[in-house]
Design a protein that fits this description.
alpha/beta; Rossmann fold
Length: 221
């Protein structure tokens, strides 16, 4: 029997082999249950209504309705699940579009299984999750062509952080997850989450990507 803490996941990808691989990866975690699969973005809405997943793992390129449009439609629902975009491409325009429509994560299909499982857990807990390479793409796109004054502004805002918060912010800038930060800084995950909350508040940021951009602007990544 599935316990109440189980994260319900819907897979949407037009490649049956990819779906089979994802089901195998996620099925090895006792706290994750793949409740349904869809072969196109057009199937996502009905499947969400039927199975009430917590997280939808959504391919970005599908023949009839692509993942970005499907994600936008899902997130317009009053009972919207979290959506993680999954793709073989890490083009910055796609990353920014995915985040713009409200996706909570963006992972490459060659993401290691353990990292993918951790990303599902992060997103289910209300966090954003981007692989380090994708984080770099977002930062590059968001800061392209900007003037050097951003560095002074970023350094000033980061100076508001305590020493411990500064260390956590640098780790976020490297694309590290809360679990990875906890291990590297010898803190509990609960403590890391508390620091992240304070960092977002002090920097006036709404998500981890904005923190990473601030760290980049300050010349610290």
């Amino acid at each position: 029997m599935v316990n109440e803490a189980t994260i319900r996941v819907l897979l949407v990808d037009d490649d049956p082999l990819v779906r089979a691989g994802l089901r195998l990866i996620l099925g090895g975690s006792p706290d994750i249950e793949v409740v349904a699969e869809g072969a196109d973005g057009s199937e996502a809405g009905p499947l969400v209504a039927q199975h009430r997943p917590d997280v939808v793992l959504m391919d970005i390129r599908m023949p009839r309705l692509d993942g970005l449009v499907a994600t936008e439609q899902l997130l317009a629902r009053p009972d919207a699940p979290k959506v993680v975009i999954l793709t073989t491409f890490d083009a910055d325009s796609m990353v920014l579009r995915a985040l713009a429509v409200g996706a909570s994560g963006f992972l490459l299909k060659d993401t290691p299984p353990a990292r993918m499982v951790e990303a599902i857990r992060q997103v289910a807990a209300g966090e954003h999750s981007l692989s380090p390479t994708v984080t770099a793409q977002v930062i590059a796109a968001a800061t392209h062509g900007q003037v050097s004054s951003r560095k002074d502004e970023a350094q000033a805002s980061l100076s508001l952080l305590t020493e411990r918060e500064h260390e956590v912010a640098l780790a976020i800038g490297q694309g590290m997850t809360n679990a990875e930060i906890a291990r590297s800084q010898y803190m509990s995950i609960a403590t890391v989450k508390a620091h992240v909350t304070k960092i977002l508040e002090k920097l006036g940021a709404s998500n981890r990507v904005q923190v990473a951009i601030r760290v980049h602007d300050a010349g610290l990544s």
